[in-house]
């Protein structure tokens, strides 16, 4: 039985032009920008936007002029691939367990980056006064009454086919696609709009992500994710390179396509119920986006 918390919660893209890319995505998916991370902007290398798709999020990051001068990871990726998929983020039920098991996969590189965040308040009350620090492998998520908290941990693309991140947030919820629990990457005010407009007229969130690993067989990469995430996820017995998460979501691992592009190359989106379908498949920002009907497994 898959833990209902184990979900693909966010996809991240990297692009040359933040505002143009964001505008196209908002229009294509009938979805609003809910957060621009001031702490990321203050770091000097990246600016970003978060678009809400139901209670999941599509992030776009863009290097600043300073980042281009410094030749950062993101600028080198753009020079190699152009605008493209950058990261897949999975929500886990216990980051202390999953961080250890993820760190053991592949080359055993371990954590690329990780932070804990704690702020007084409740879901929807904002992040004024947030405190944060470097995450230590295996530490549990802080859970203090009267606070909201979150942990994010990232792992190297060579070990997971793309930059991989796991998230645990508190207090959370399992009521998808109307989750109003804490989710730090998108700030802490996005929850206030879920009831009024649970989703737009295109999609309610992610159904699947497709990842093309470099130098590793897709089935082996799928097994790495399964061993790393745990929490009851399983490999589809008929498709050895497809990992099943909660509520009908999947992660598919494929060979690189023409041109050898790797990382996040495709995303399936749950079609909004009752809405006129605006497209079947579109290609944008180096990713193929496909609308699919709900299988009835959603939580």
Write the layout of secondary structure elements.
Blueprint: E1 7-14, H1 18-29, E2 33-35, H2 38-42, E3 46-53, E4 56-63, H3 65-70, H4 73-81, E5 84-91, H5 95-103, E6 111-120, E7 131-134, E8 147-155, H6 157-160, E9 163-170, E10 203-212, H7 218-229, E11 234-235, E12 242-244, E13 250-253, E14 263-271, E15 281-284, E16 287-292
Parallel strand pairs: 1-4, 5-9, 10-13, 14-16
Antiparallel strand pairs: 1-5, 2-3, 3-4, 6-7, 6-8, 8-9, 10-14, 11-12, 12-13, 15-16
Helix pairs in contact: 5-7
Report on the architecture of this protein:
This protein has 299 residues and is α+β, with helices and mostly antiparallel strands. It is 19% helix and 35% strand. It has helices spanning 18-29, 38-42, 65-70, 73-81, 95-103, 157-160, 218-229, and strands at residues 7-14, 33-35, 46-53, 56-63, 84-91, 111-120, 131-134, 147-155, 163-170, 203-212, 234-235, 242-244, 250-253, 263-271, 281-284, 287-292. The protein has a 9-stranded mixed β-sheet with strand order 2-3-4-1-5-9-8-6-7. The protein has a 7-stranded mixed β-sheet with strand order 11-12-13-10-14-16-15. Strand 3 and strand 4 form a beta hairpin. The longest helix is centred in the N-terminal third of the chain and has 12 residues, at 18-29.
